[in-house]
Design brief:
Elements: E1 3-14, E2 17-28, E3 34-38, H1 45-52, E4 60-65, E5 68-69, H2 75-84, E6 85-88, H3 103-112, H4 119-132, H5 137-140, H6 150-163, E7 168-172, H7 180-197, E8 200-205, H8 208-214, E9 217-222, E10 225-231, H9 232-235, H10 242-249, H11 265-270, H12 290-294, E11 299-303, E12 306-308, E13 318-319
Parallel strand pairs: 3-8, 3-9, 6-7, 7-8
Antiparallel strand pairs: 1-2, 1-4, 4-5, 9-10, 10-12, 11-12, 11-13
The structure holds iron/sulfur cluster.
């Protein structure tokens, strides 16, 4: 598998606080994937999104795009990275200038990256991008942000990302501020962009249900570390880590039709921090053992398409990282890669 983007043993500290630790993942160059990074507030998922987008550097580890460390890129390489890895933010209203028509946010990136050779081509590209996200150009262009609904504004932001022909869209809680009636439609549109245009989507969310509905793979974060990762069928359908089990048990199975959130996870966070050198979930874990309080669990591979950072799976092979590529593999001979 050729890697499009890799996080290699990434850690991020803010002052004395570690927001992320020991995160490794790979998105494949060959297969456009649909991957979720799930976790509650404080889990580190937004920090992970910002590192993937190159907005902040890791404190340790590397972010490698097309084989090049972000910190060693030339200006031209950095420009390509910025065009090919596009964000979609939680609150689309923040991105619009209320004094400009919405056309402005669509024209600007095209001009910045010189994507069109004429005004007519620019207009055609914008109309095509709007149509791909279910908006009628005639009903959208020429309007001010306040004249559009939250769902329409968010779709414009997705269209803006699509205009730049990205390889990856990192969508950070893209539907959390959108009416419930439109959420499924916008997520379906992301899935269509993944399938039709070959764009890998990294969907950052607190909502396991929508992750299950649209994604192939999932990485569950707890307090900045990976608790469990693998295919959504495995991780959500049959979770192996006690934290994921707790989260999934709050969703009415098997139809997964209700939004995640019945469980008061803030209680989990408030129930006491973990000591260094122990499992960070031990204070809350109903299955905690003595070893969980004296050692940090490595990542184990309980089956071929998942990893879990938990001593309950100690009999499975231990693995050093994780992979969100959609192609799950056993460790290679030198043990560097994981699943
Ligand atoms: Fe629970 Fe121990 Fe597994 Fe941590 S390592 S999740 S405390 S069983």
């Amino acid at each position: 598998m050729n890697a499009l983007i890799e996080l290699r043993n990434v850690r991020k500290d803010f002052g004395g606080f570690t927001a992320l630790d020991d995160i490794s993942l790979t998105l494949s160059e060959d297969t456009a994937s649909m991957s979720a990074v799930a976790g509650e507030s404080g889990s580190g998922k937004t920090t992970l999104a910002r590192i993937l987008l190159g907005f902040i550097p890791p404190s340790r580890g590397e972010v490698v795009y097309r084989g090049k460390d972000l910190t060693r890129m030339s200006g031209a390489e950095r420009r390509v990275f910025r065009r090919e890895v596009q964000p979609v933010f939680q609150d689309p209203f923040d991105v619009f200038n209320p004094f400009y028509r919405v056309d402005h946010v669509l024209h600007m990136p095209l001009r910045r990256y010189r994507m069109a050779s004429s005004a007519a081509e620019e207009r055609a590209m914008i109309e095509d991008a709007l149509s791909r996200v279910g908006l009628r150009p005639a009903d959208t262009l020429g309007r001010y942000p306040h004249e559009l609904s939250g769902g329409q504004r968010q779709r414009i932001m997705v269209a803006r990302a699509v205009l730049l022909r990205p390889r990856i869209i990192v969508a950070d809680e893209p539907v959390s501020m959108v009416d419930a009636s439109l959420r499924a439609t916008i997520l379906d549109e992301l899935r269509t962009l993944n399938r039709d245009l070959g764009i890998s989507i990294v969907y950052i969310t607190h909502d396991l249900t929508t992750a299950f509905q649209i994604c192939d793979n999932i990485l569950v974060l707890y307090k900045g570390e990976v608790a469990e990762a693998g295919s959504v069928e495995n991780v959500i359908g049959s979770p192996k880590h006690p934290y994921t089990q707790l989260l999934v048990s709050s969703i009415p199975l098997p139809d997964l039709s209700q939004e995640w959130g019945a469980l008061d996870v803030t209680q989990v966070e408030a129930s006491g921090g973990s000591a260094a050198g122990s499992c960070n979930f031990a204070p809350r874990c109903p299955q905690a053992m003595d070893v969980c309080r004296s050692r940090k669990p490595p990542k184990f591979m309980p089956d071929a398409a998942r990893l879990a950072r938990c001593f309950l799976h100690e009999s499975a092979p231990a693995v050093p990282g994780e992979d969100l590529a959609g192609v799950f593999r056993p460790p290679d001979p030198d043990g560097r890669e994981t699943i």
